Amino acid sequence: MCLKLFFLTSVFPVILKNWRLQCLAACEKKPYMAQINLNINEHAAKLVARTRAAGGLAPVNLERFWADQERAVANPFGADIPQVPLGILMSRECIFAELDIPETPAAWHRLLHDAVWGAEVSRVYNDKSEKIVGRRLLSENIPDPKLTYPPVKQLYDIFEANNIWHNESYWLQQSAHGEAELQQLLDRVEQRLENLRSFILPANWDSEKHRLMALGVQPPTYRFQRGPVTFATSVYGSEDLVFLIMDNPDLAVRFRDLMIRAMLERARILDEESGQFPHGFQFNDDNCCLLTADMYELFAYPILKTMFDRFSPAPGDRRYQHSDSAMGHLLPVLSRLNFTGVNFGPTLPVSLIRQHMPGAVIDGQLAPFTFSRNEEENIVREFLRDFEQARAQRGLLFATAGSINNGSRLTGMRLIMAAIQEFGR
Q1: Residue 200, CA distances (Å) to 175, 185, 203, 205, 280 in order
Q2: 246-270, pLDDT tens digit by residue?
Q3: Residues in CB range of 421: below 8 A, 6 or more apart
Q4: pTM
Q5: Closest to 291 in 3D by CA, of 249, 248, 241
């Protein structure tokens, strides 16, 4: 108990403080490299000056850019690609600032739940994006409820975590507090896995599947999951998971193994229902930064390895992780998973990621807040920095090292396109 108290009051706050400081450093644009090459500063200043002189529209040949982009994005490692491929194609989150719509919880709820309104504002946004960057970027489709399968229960349902709307997003609620409750929860999960099909599929599944298959609509499959650490900290709590792995590794392993069983069984059922077996799997695991390398190797690594071995067996199959946090200490462990694509936090330089993952396409490493704050010279500097680190081996898809947040502007995207066209060839 003394060790727990010491960890909670002394060690864990330091871990969180260091993580926050690293994130803030990236957001405030403290560069990864000890010094920024003076040419980078000069190139950035000149391009931004030309952009401002043109009324905020960076100088770029749009037709040529998108023709080159099509070739480049097809194979970011290609020896003959004409330029660095662009991975920033914006998101619906950017609608608020771009269209001067107040970003309120009510507006967020409407954007996610009112398909007609979402399509309308996307259409207005696309009218603007077509003029600025030469492409309509957001989907304007309105899903037809008559062509949609009834919802299938998720992994968090199997582990009894409620997914509730709070402010501007959905949040999983902790379903077990303390080891005794976790033991009981895992007992119930084990029982659930005995007949998981009847639990995850709704009562009208068979009739709806028959109707929709006749219309050519395939059932969903399962190839994406909130990562094991993020998922486990939602179900059991962040500090509790750390203490569990430290104090009761046997129970932590049981938790881990039931997650593996549940994921494999859920995927098997949905594959069987769809008659398909698509290759590839993706995890989004921001909270992985909370574990040491040894803790991660015990708890999370076996989950990723099992899922990749099962669903991504071929060399070119998608093995992807998004973790926009300061998780560089995990790279030696993650390197053994042979990722084909990664999107890591802004404190990790391209050169360090490439050192550990020579075959992965790196989606990054523009700090999301550099982009959303429209720090024009820093946007160009970060591109030039990443291009310089990636040019020898290639494999960079220039994107934000994390989410594309509200505040990210179409003029900022055009500025990146201009930097790619002028410097990133």
Answers
A1: 18, 17, 10, 10, 22
A2: 999 999 999 999 999 999 999 999 9
A3: 60, 61, 64, 65, 68, 83
A4: 0.87
A5: 241
